[in-house]
Specification:
alpha+beta; Structural Genomics Hypothetical 15.5 Kd Protein In mrcA-pckA Intergenic Region, Chain A; Pseudouridine synthase; nine-stranded mixed sheet; globular
Length: 325
């Protein structure tokens, strides 16, 4: 089996100020600049032993840069026997309840053990190549630690129709979320563009449309289903589908999701309003408390209206019960 190779280069004075991706690509034969850029963004590059993730970083003379080049991943994901909680299946599609912790498709750091691997193990040849070799059947995503309902295509026609439905918002999606504090007003709409964070590429942020950092139109409607003083149970409806949309919008309102490892930056003041046991459980919750609770869409072949719902997983419900007291 091929192993990861690491290449080290010490920058000279003549390299000062050059873009890191251009500098490394010019010194490493056989690697394109786009490939080098992707490796840097994956965390495979370092400067004097410290990881760097910004391809446009200016090269510093005298510094030693290292770039790790992992062996190529298989062009097509492999089938794996991973249990799935299937709510509905026919010749055109599968509707399933994704558990928290399951990555949707192979990516750096998650080459196997994903939903795609499980789908190939379940449906075999039916799934191969539908919508593309790398992500067969996938028409929308849930974050790794978000649980809930997803629909997957089993035919190319279904993939195209479902993809169009998501693009045109010709369907209904609702989520359940536990957030810190109680939003005021208790029901409302967040209309704020979302784009890549200025300094942290792993995060998204609310940005001004048309500004230096162009954001994409994003609307989330929320309603407080139950208030717990220092936290609240929300119903959230996506009117658009941006990366981390609910998580970003609720953090923008000052009510980040309980357990969110990316957008909850400090212990919220609202935590003081909770009883000790509930506060400790909420602060220790290991993931964002977000669940895709329902999905309603038109079947791409029969045109029948389908609707599915699921309860949040046990850890979410246990925390909810503690907050309720």
């Amino acid at each position: 089996m091929a192993s990861t190779e690491t290449h080290s280069i010490t920058a000279a004075e003549s390299d000062r100020g050059e873009r890191l991706d251009r500098f490394l690509a010019s010194r490493l034969n056989g690697l394109s600049r786009s490939r080098v850029k992707a490796l840097i963004e994956e965390g495979q590059a370092s400067r004097d032993g410290t990881t760097v993730r910004e391809p446009a970083e200016a090269v510093r003379p005298g510094s030693t840069y290292a770039l790790a080049t992992p062996p190529p991943r298989p062009a097509s994901p492999v089938a794996q026997d991973i249990p799935l909680d299937i709510l509905f299946e026919d010749r055109d599609l599968i509707v399933l309840d994704k558990p928290a912790g399951l990555v949707v498709h192979p990516a750096p750091g998650h080459a196997e053990g994903t939903l795609v691997n499980a789908l190939l193990g379940h449906a075999g040849d039916e799934m191969e190549g539908i919508g593309g070799e790398a992500r067969p059947g996938i028409v929308h995503r849930l974050d790794k630690d978000t649980s809930g309902i997803m629909v997957v295509a089993k035919t190319q026609a279904a993939h195209e129709a479902l993809s169009a439905a998501f693009m045109n918002r010709d369907l209904d999606r609702e989520y359940r979320a536990l957030c810190w504090g109680v939003p005021q007003p208790p029901e409302g709409e967040v209309n704020a563009a979302i784009g890549r964070h200025q300094t942290d590429r792993k995060r998204m942020a609310v940005v001004e449309r048309g500004g230096a950092r162009q954001g994409k139109h994003a609307i989330t409607r929320y309603a407080t289903l139950e208030a717990f003083g220092g936290a609240a149970l929300l119903r959230c409806k996506l009117m658009t589908g941006r990366t981390h949309q609910i998580r970003v919008h609720m953090a923008h309102l000052g009510h980040p999701l309980v357990g969110d490892p990316v957008y909850l930056r400090r212990v919220p003041a609202a935590a003081r309003a909770l009883p000790d046991e509930a506060r400790e459980a909420a602060l220790a919750f290991p993931r964002q408390a977000l669940h895709a609770a329902s999905l309603r869409f038109r079947h791409p072949a029969t045109q029948a209206m389908l609707e599915f719902s699921s309860e949040p997983p046990a850890d979410f419900q246990a925390l909810e019960a503690l907050l309720r007291g």
